[in-house]
User: What shape does this take?
Amino acid sequence: MFGRRARDPVAPEAFHAALLEIHRAVGVEGVRAALLRVGSRILEAEHASFFRYEPKWRDLAGVPLGGGEEIRFPAGQGLLGWVAETRAPLVTKRPGREKAYLEAVDGLDGVPPRNLVVLPVVELERLHGVAAFENAADEALGEETTAVVAMLAEQAALALARAEHREEDRKLTLSMAAAFGGAVDAKFASTGGHSRRTTELALRLGEAMGLDEDALGALAIASSLHNVGRVDSTRPPEGAGAPRMGTGGATSHHLLVGEAVLRNIEFPPCLAGVPEIALACHEAVDGSGYPRGARGEELSIGARILMVACAFDHLRFMPGGGDGARLTDEEALAHIRENAGRLYDAAVVRVFDEQRLWDSEKRRHARIEVASAVEVSLYDEHGRPGPSVENEVLDISEGGLQFRSASSMPVWALAHLVIRLPTDSIEALAKIARVVPDGDGPSGAGGWRIGVSFLWYGRTEGAGGGGAPGGRRTGN
Assistant: This one.
């Protein structure tokens, strides 16, 4: 091709092995990495990189062939951008002499690469990105060799499409579970945000313990739905320590309802463990828990992780004891440590303790004092918004906010909020969770402190209250 001896063609066995490696890869990043591995192996490439295509901006993003920070550039810029724009493969012995060559995009540590192969990764006219390979050897790459890698790029495009569809399905499933769990938690002021915080903490713990993608997915859904049985509850759970102290009554009732709900869901094989994990919050590793009385490794690792995460959040955020006080971090952690090997799996507690996984969650959900205003509009029994009234925000967290109001508001009422932050505006649908007199006088003479739990929030697309929130969803 380049006037020199071409390399030997690719053996059928090598092609078949490369094909299997691509289609067995897990996830979008896994497929991209597999393509670079097999392409580098066949082309004997010294450098390889994948540049993903982002259609919204019509640009490419990836780490340069020479390594370093990720770069971003428009389709059509440089040789890589030319391949993305034309969707035609490029094989060149001297890329630095090509008219479209651009050092910032195509360069390799300040010098032009040699034997550059750039392939579009296209599926049904949809561009996923381009894969670039560089080899500094003198001999040319044979046409058959590059054609084989081009075929592998086509197969990678199909695998990427499947991986992306699976990821979209996964995100939908996780978001639906989180939304349902959050709606159940919002029934009571004491449980607001519990499932969301527990899920985040359980996933951090699961990642630290090396769970794979499927196991983490099952853990996320189970954590979001572990309180689903409270959809039938008419009173909030008991105080701190409740996950371990009750043995019947309303607590057992919500587990029975939860089991009924979860058994009616047809989980795929990779999520078949969700019901067992979700219903394990009241179990104990010594067999003294309920409803099954399972012990030790009769409980899956996901269940043992959720037991610790759920208990810690319950101890920290739900009123407990005779005075209704919440436990501090250290008090909650002391309870977890003291019961390692009895209520909680000792290995899980050790990782939880040593890596201080609760610290990041505490920072994320901490209430932050912020000087801002919030427009509050209460919905009536027909779902119509009332007049909007501006109030002073006292503090805000990811799960809700507290504001000062001249007048009281009914607990459990739904409200539409527009929060005016210094650099942004946030629109939210919230539930009034707490109403207390504001300090200085009897029965609200000094106004009222009102706490709300977010059911949904997103950036506003325009000012004002009124209809249902319509901003971009941000994960709550």
